[in-house]
Amino acid sequence: MSEASKQTQVSKFRTVFNMMLSPGTAIKKAVSGVPFYFSMLVSGTAFGLFFLQTGLDMYRTGRQPLLFVITAAIAGALFGITAVPAISAILWAVSKPFGCSKSLTWAIKAFCLSYSGALVYCVIGIIISVFFGWRTAVAFGVTGVMWAVGPMIATIKEMIGGKVLLCVMLAALAGSSVLLCWSFLGKI
């Protein structure tokens, strides 16, 4: 593997952790340098693992068969690569009248990368679920998704020039819509 390739891999993973720990800085510095497919991979994997945890929890309580676990993981991955970009596009369109100068591609990448914290939490949750048999969807999955609100606020703030109240309202709507979709899975 070439030195440039190693540097690219390191910076992609560094971007994931930076989005979790310092979203404002990561958005300004890294989003434009991250490939579109990588940002989609972050949100797709995060939601695939989140829904997998939910499926495992439901399987362990006897509420669902094993096939549901696999179906839930696939549904989560599809949610991460379709619903998150769709929500991003809606928020981008809403932000245009407020002076958004960012492209739709930038917005989708930034919102998908906002779920970097969810990815980290869900990986840890799956490890704990598998090795200890704990039900982890709420403790790790929901916490990870809630962690995404901070990066979403930073993204929206960057898009609309710092209008904080509007940023918080739009991020709350985006985060609520994601959790609402997840709650439907729990009602199955």
Count of individual beta strands:
0
Q: Indicate the overall shape.
A: elongated
Helix amount: over 70%
- Beta-strand content: under 5%
**Mean pLDDT reading:** 86
Radius of gyration (CA) equals 17 Å
Largest pleated sheet: none
Q: Helices and strands: which structural class?
A: mainly alpha
Instruction: Count helical runs.
Output: 9
Spans of at least 5 consecutive residues with low confidence: 3-7
> What order do the SSEs take from the amino end to the carboxyl end, as H and E?
HHHHHHHHH
Cα separation of the termini: 46 Å
Question: What descriptive keywords fit this protein?
Answer:
188 residues, mainly alpha, 9 helices, elongated, disordered N terminus
Could you characterize what this model shows?
This protein is an all-alpha fold and 188 residues long. It is 82% helix and 0% strand. It has nine helices and no strands. The protein has helices spanning 3-21, 23-29, 36-60, 66-95, 104-113, 116-132, 137-147, 149-160, 164-186. Helix 5 (104-113) runs antiparallel to helix 8 (149-160). The protein is elongated, with a radius of gyration of 17 Å. It starts with a helix and ends with a helix. Residues 3-7 have low confidence and may be disordered.
